Amino acid sequence: MKILKVKNLKVELEGKVIIKNISFEIEEGDTLAIIGPNGAGKTTLLKAILGLIPYEGEVKYKEGDIRNYLDEISYVPQKFDFDKSIPLTVREFLSLTSRKLNGSEVDHIIKEIGILNLLNKKIGEISGGELQRVLIAKAVLDKPNLILLDEPTTGIDIEGERKFYELIKHLNEEHKITVIFVSHEINIVYNFSKKVICLNKDLLCFGLTEKVLTEKTIKALYGEEAIYHIHDHAK
Questions:
Q1: What percent of the chain has pLDDT over 70?
Q2: Can you tell me the distance from the alpha carbon of 185 to that of 206, in angstroms, rounded to the nearest whole number?
Q3: Is the separation of the CB atoms in 53 and 70 below 8 Å?
């Protein structure tokens, strides 16, 4: 079943075209990576999909206007800004979920995501990697069908990044959550996405990751001077 359809999407802000000619469809259960150089419009694309900024074109979710289904969608931004002096514990933060879940459901998700040891800590005192896991737990507690992640592992070390995406893969496979994520790590994209969008204001490629993300495509995105080890990947 098609869960998201984007057709002829264009975003223009203050007279400047940010992205244009963006058309793609994804199926329920897909994991879609969005890649491209800095300034390519990756975050803009996510915000347009969510209806957070004005756009031209169509964004359909299950054949309807996506803005009518926002209760089925979770968004984890690249940077979560909040007042770290607020004495809010992780447990209290998670209790702000919009869904009414029973205690066993909450406990299961907390253990599954591996944040049981964080519950009584102040949210302003945990590390960046721990905060990202808490944000994922918050997103999953809202029981979404679709999660959008904007470079969620920025500032996290390589091992932490891999563990994070293993968690995302688990949520996709076990909870049947469709995932769209922005990343700049080619190996992560190869290992954790089924489909990929190559974006640089225009749509340069879209399709199955292992088929369309070639050395030629990567050079077109990042330039001849960029060297990537794209041969060493295993789905």
A1: 91
A2: 17
A3: no
Phi, psi of 16 (to 5 degrees): -115, 130
Residues 23/9, Cβ–Cβ less than 8 Å: yes
Beta bridge partners of 197: 34, 206
Number of neighbouring beta carbons within 10 Å of residue 197: 24
Q: Is the pTM of this model over 0.90?
A: no
Question: 168 burial class (0-12, 13-18, 19+ CB within 10 angstroms)?
Answer: buried
The half-sphere exposure of 92 on its side-chain side, counting CA atoms within 13 A, is 9
Instruction: Give dist(CA 49, CA 65) in Å, integer.
Output: 10
Q: What share of the chain is helix, strand, coil (3-state, %, to 5)?
A: 35, 30, 35
Strand locations in the chain (E): 2-13, 16-27, 31-35, 56-61, 64-65, 73-76, 146-150, 178-182, 195-200, 202-208
Q: Summarize pLDDT for 20-43 with one digit per residue, the tens.
A: 999 999 999 999 999 999 899 999
The pLDDT value given to residue 32: 97
Structure-token match 């995501």, residue found: 113
133 in Cβ contact with 164 (< 8 Å): yes
pLDDT for the residue 229: 47
**Per-domain residue ranges of the chain:** 2-80+145-222
> Which amino acid makes up residue 229?
H
Fold of 2-80+145-222: Rossmann fold (3.40.50)
190 CB-near residues (< 8 Å, 6+ apart):
209, 210, 213, 230, 233, 235
